[in-house]
Amino acid sequence: MADLIEEGTGRRRSDNELLDTALRDFYSAADYMHLDEKLVSILSFAERRIDVSVPVEMDDGSVQVFKGYRVQHSTALGPSKGGIRYAMDVTGAECEGLAMLMTWKCSLGGIPYGGGKGGIKCDSTKLSKKERERMTRTYGARIAPIVGRWSDVPAPDMYTGGQEMVWIMDTICKMLGHFEPAILTGKPIGYWGAIGRTEATGRGAATCGLELMKARGLDPSKITATVQGFGNVGSYTAQILQQAGVKIVAISDTTGTYYNPNGINIDKAFEYMNTNPAQRGGKLRGFEKENCEKIPGDEIIGLDADFFFPCALQGVLNKDSAPKLKAKYVVEGANSPTTPEAEEYLTDNGVILVPDFLANSGGVIGSYFEWAQNLQGWSWTEEEYNTRLVDLIKNNFCKVWNYAEENKVTMRRSAYVNAIKRVADVVDMRGLYL
Ligand code: NAD
């Protein structure tokens, strides 16, 4: 990875698109808030990054060496927190960019964490379960020196889940010679995981939508919404919105969009998804039988609705699709669903966007709750978990909304300013000595 310093400004650039975008967004917010240049320099670099080799004995007896990374962008507020992903485009620079975004997300979330991220460059779908286990355990052992409940707390991300977390935790516990459940989060519910975590990101996104309705004086029972993506985030977002009285007129997944202007019964969609045996590559296939019309997937953006919840992919609202959007409000359940050009267009046209790192922060807040319970050695009830989650999200939403209103800026700008300020203040207070 080439690390470039821009002539004239002395600021950092990267040839990795994700890191470069994270840096640009940070500098832009820092300039807006007139952040002290010393703090700008400090926060534009990750505190620590390790590159590890991960040799794996394959099932055929050969050895393949994978590249792995773990980055801690900031531990100013507390242990760094962030997922571990398995994907072919994983690089140290990408992890650095993602770790920086985690710093802002945790800070805005009002939780005592900094930002981290890690991963292995691999196509895990081509590995057998045994190969995945050997790779995961070796990676866990190699990052163990910097991981810990008070230093860096990993979690699942793309192509990793509860099984990978248990392998890493088990490996590190055996190295340490004692039990250490708070070393990472995203564990299965029956094994030190937290009840409520599955729904947490969707609950957070739905809560942001409902708070936006409140802030705009809108009655949820008179509001229509479309939800793109019916996976972990989208399905619970739709269900919780519907429970609050919102009419969900369309849902979608890789198989298409399912539309009914009179409202879709989301509980029925859950039931369909969980019982339909013919689900391959898209769980809502055939759902048009249940009293709705099937239209092409990307047409969900142009449907008549007050709110649009993109909860699937990045970049779905771009310069081509943004002019088609009918909704006046967008709540970004997915990461980066709106390109900067699209956001500019939408903002100019009066659309209000709740940015991803506020709208989908229910996930990391929920992980914090799992960690807190592990440290206590005590499980909360589902009600306690949900109440605390909703309270925090409401509080964070309010902070972002109020600043945006008072300063006439977008919610994204407001979210960045709030997030960066909390970290910068602590870095300043703690001082430079390392
Ligand atoms: P998931 O894999 O559970 O679900 C993704 C859904 O999107 C599936 O229903 C899939 O069919 C659908 N989809 C894929 N391509 C589509 C397309 N072209 N049109 C319509 N639907 C499409 O993933 P998830 O966990 O729900 O994550 C969704 C997004 O939210 C991702 O951007 C992820 O990074 C982000 N996110 C997730 C969490 C979390 O806790 N799960 C937390 C923060 C951010």
What's the structural blueprint in terms of helices and strands?
Blueprint: E1 3-5, E2 12-14, H1 17-32, H2 37-43, E3 48-57, E4 63-72, E5 80-87, H3 92-108, E6 114-121, H4 129-143, E7 152-156, H5 162-176, H6 197-215, E8 224-228, H7 232-243, E9 247-253, E10 256-259, H8 266-275, E11 293-295, E12 307-310, E13 329-331, H9 340-348, E14 352-354, H10 356-359, H11 362-376, H12 382-407, H13 411-430
Parallel strand pairs: 5-6, 5-7, 8-9, 8-12, 12-13, 13-14
Antiparallel strand pairs: 1-2, 3-4, 4-6, 9-10, 10-11
Helix pairs in contact: 1-3, 1-13, 3-13, 4-5, 6-7, 6-11, 6-12, 11-12, 12-13
Bound molecules: nicotinamide-adenine-dinucleotide (NAD).
Task: Describe the protein.
- With about 425 residues, this protein is an alpha/beta fold.
- Helices cover about 45% and strands about 20% of the residues.
- The protein contains 13 helices and 14 strands.
- The chain has helices spanning about 15-30, 35-45, 90-110, 130-145, 160-175, 195-215, 230-245, 265-275, 340-350, 355-360, 360-375, 380-405, 410-430; strands spanning about 5, 10-15, 50-55, 65-70, 80-85, 115-120, 150-155, 225-230, 245-255, 255-260, 295, 305-310, 330, 350-355.
- The strands form 3 sheets. Strands 11-10-9-8-12-13-14 form a 7-stranded mixed β-sheet, with helices on both faces. Strands 3-4-6-5-7 form a 5-stranded mixed β-sheet. It has a two-stranded antiparallel sheet with strand order 1-2.
- Helix 9 links the parallel strand 13 (about 330) and strand 14.
- Helix 6 (about 195-215) packs across helix 11.
- The longest helix is centred in the C-terminal third of the chain and has 26 residues, at about 380-405.
- It is globular.
- The two termini are about 25 Å apart.
- The model has no long low-confidence stretch (mean pLDDT about 95).
- The structure holds nicotinamide-adenine-dinucleotide.
- Nicotinamide-adenine-dinucleotide (NAD) binds next to helix 7 and strand 9.
